[in-house]
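Morning!

This is the sequence you dropped in the shared folder:
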Amino acid sequence: MPDIWQPVTLGKMTLPNRFVMAPMTRSRAQYDGTPGPLAAEYYAQRASVGLIVAEGTQPSADGQGYMMTPGIYTQAHIDGWQKVTSAVHAANGHIYIQLMHAGRMSHPDNTPHHRQAVAPSAIAPGTGMFTAKGMQDIPPPRALSTAEVRQTVQDFRHAAKSAAEAGADGVEIHGANAYLIQQFFAPGANTRTDEYGGSIENRARFALEVAQAIAEEIGAERTAIRFSPGTTLWGIDEGADYPELYRYLMTELNKLGLSYVHIMHQGNDALLADIRRIWSGKLIINRPGRPREEIGHDVASGLADLEVYGQMILANPDFLARLKADAPLNDADRMTFFGGDEKGYTDYPTL
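The structure's back. Tokens below.
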């Protein structure tokens, strides 16, 4: 069986190992959405992993949810990300940019245009969000018209083109964690009566159209997507038929020949086994909280082709070297996860 330290082909790339750095929001971008001045150093420090998936990056002004998150839809964004990708490539690394439209998980105070958030339906998530004024309740979003849903697909297409221009090796579509694409999946967040609501096929349509558009724009071999089947985060309820929705998605996505599918596993082992069976491409698995002694188990068993790690890599830029040396790992400082300067960002010690 394969070993997590062995090389693997992903699209047209050959990665030196099967470790993936998870996309993690750090809220250190500039006010206009350009990556911050330390972003290139931060990612380059961690370039020894097989693949870096950069933090959630909005494809449009409507797509921003949190404070100080990066975008990839203006020339300034492209120029900023070029510095990041160049630094990672100079360190012999590989990097995808994650395209994340927050949908209803947004607050007008956090976006450049300060407008009401958009979503499949005008249903608030029932939670709060940190803003410059402190924690505030997230107000109800505005339901996208059918024409606006189609325009949002094109926003993703443009963002993928911009990411490619910025030198990214590919893009990962964020279809997980209660953001816009998963909002379309969930009947509790999507009560539409057009072709984007109701049946499984309709609720999956937006995700498939986004994947198709990006694959057409930059190539299927540079296009990937992330899911978190069964999550109940921030009011998301995908309904009792959610396993069938994901089986349908896997069957349809299989026709596109994408680079990989990334699954944040929520505990439904039978569904995960079905995804592995249906999906013929590379599968990346993220098991939140996976202990150190289980690193490599999913690759060794054949369930995954690559494995994702988040906080361990955040706190240990030399994560792989520490594993090889059986050395202790730095603990992640949660107080510095979001916002700030180099503390808890680029100053974690190496061996």
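Headline: The first helix runs from residue 39 to 45.

More detail when I'm at my desk.
O.
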